[in-house]
């Protein structure tokens, strides 16, 4: 299951665990970086023998590559629901895209952002208004409304889906409130873009960002998509060839308009083409099969973890709120790094531990649990290529590890 929806590489990797057994590797860290899709690898393989300069040469290969790059841009624009007047700028990743947007935001425009954001959507902004963590999606919308009343037209920077909890944020509702106040919205779609439809037009937001490496394409390509006016008004994010239309003999510059203004230097054609191949494949087949597969696995994972004594799930909006295939948890009495190490070394399962580049949110979730938890958490995440067998192995392994936690061992008087 899942392979038909979006086949990925690496599913047959084996790993030797501490007791000497050779096990199929279970990559359950897909929210950090997804495995490479077969369509992405094929697109790269087709391109490599005939690649040359983009936007520079007159030769037939340069023409071919320039066309491929601009076709990739158009495919991404369709994937993210660009409207007339929107543009797609290729960046290195979501972090780069958000820093680019922070660079073009007019100096007088404050940026509202919740403290639950990934650091990529928390740290780049200059004039930041930090909103406290909401307890419900309704509280999030009300907080934006209230802040916009005080701060006037601002840029609201919000994630579509938390990389810690997998919870879906009320972006369309926030966008409605923002519109009412004449504010703009940027959506961090780094997580959502790989699991469900995300559209500038449907959400009625101004900008969105995503990362190719989370979208089943290789590293090194990301996107900032959205309205062109601030981007065309600001100085280029990077200065150099491609960003400049004319440089006079006295050094004066006329900068280019459009996406090229912020894409100085030779662009990452391979990354753009790979990412576009995934976008086209998903646009053609739709998300339904993949979403269904992931939701079934998530339910199985949730149900399994719920049976393990000592495991505490981390969610902000409560267990009934819609989530993507992410499950963050901590085991009472066990260091999360130790849990992750044992999952890897003893069970051949890859997860992530720590504070997930969202320190305020993860610390808040750990501190507000009813039980005393360690200072960091474990995160398992699913996607295309994840199997039921991997989910079951994870649950069984966590149960074995949790059973050894000091707090889960019976007290000595109980043993008798
Ligand atoms: N936002 C979210 C929600 C993310 O999950 C991530 C990656 N963990 C980022 C932004 C940053 O993405 P990248 O590291 O590809 O720049």
TrEMBL record:
It comes from the Bacteria. Keywords: Aminotransferase, Pyridoxal phosphate, Transferase. It catalyses: (sulfur carrier)-H + L-cysteine = (sulfur carrier)-SH + L-alanine. The lineage of its organism: Bacteria, Bacillati, Actinomycetota, Actinomycetes, Micromonosporales. InterPro entries: Aminotrans_V_dom, Aminotrans_V_PyrdxlP_BS, PyrdxlP-dep_Trfase, PyrdxlP-dep_Trfase_major, PyrdxlP-dep_Trfase_small. This is Aminotransferase. Belongs to the class-V pyridoxal-phosphate-dependent aminotransferase family. Csd subfamily. It comes from Micromonospora lutea. Its cofactor is pyridoxal 5'-phosphate. Residues 27-394 form the Aminotransferase class V domain. One of its GO terms (molecular function) is transaminase activity.
